[in-house]
Amino acid sequence: MTQGAAGGDIVFAEAALARGARLRLLLPLDENEFVARSILPAEDGVAWRDRFDALLRRIGAAGCSEAPVALGDLADGDDPFVRGNRWLLDEAFAAASPQAPQVVCLWDGRGGDGPGGTAHLVAEARRRGGDVVVIDPANL
């Protein structure tokens, strides 16, 4: 499970599919807004969008869910990416139950990714007792 943002999310998703894993994309926004906010602004955003679209074709409609549809409207003052991280973890913990899930993150350890970014996901997963594996891109 991943949100599918440009960069590590897409790279991990492609690698998982190449190894025969089942992939679910849990988008924190509707697809068009997600692409506009989490894919196109990245360097080479159009190329990332093409890779995202290829993932969608491979997993089909059943493999992708949008938070506004699955969870309803965002409450006033809530951040869609914070809610998206919590949703990912809710699904991961439910799927792994009774064990804690393993949460694998490509992350440089910095907190500059904003609300709902990787720092938030790692902190929330650890708070819930998840087995967090951090891969630092500097070591690749």
The best one-word shape is: globular
Computed Rg: 14 Å
How many separate structural domains? 1
Q: In oligomeric terms, what are we looking at?
A: single chain
Average pLDDT, rounded to a whole number, is 94
Order of helices and strands: HEHHEHHEHE
Distance between the termini: 22 Å
User: What is the topology, as strand order, of the major beta sheet?
Assistant: 1-2
Provide the structure class. Answer: mainly alpha
Beta-strand percentage range: 5-15%
Largest sheet: 2 strands, parallel
Alpha plus pi helix count = 6
Low-confidence stretches: none
Q: Roughly how much helix do the residues carry, as a percent range? A: 40-55%
Say how many strands there are. Answer: 4
Characterize the structure shown:
There is one protein chain. It contains 6 helices and 4 strands; from the N terminus they run αβααβααβαβ. It has helices at residues 8-18, 31-38, 45-59, 67-70, 80-96, 118-127, and strands at 25-27, 64-66, 102-106, 131-135. The protein is globular. Helix 5 (80-96) packs across helix 6 (118-127). It has one domain (8-139).
How would you briefly describe this protein structure?
The chain has 140 residues and is mainly alpha-helical. 46% of the residues lie in helices and 11% in strands.
Primary descriptors:
mainly alpha, two-stranded parallel ribbon, 6 helices, 4 strands, about 140 residues
SSE order and pairing:
Layout (H helix, E strand, L loop, with lengths): L7 H11 L6 E3 L3 H8 L6 H15 L4 E3 H4 L9 H17 L5 E5 L11 H10 L3 E5 L5
Parallel strand pairs: 1-2, 3-4
Helix pairs in contact: 5-6
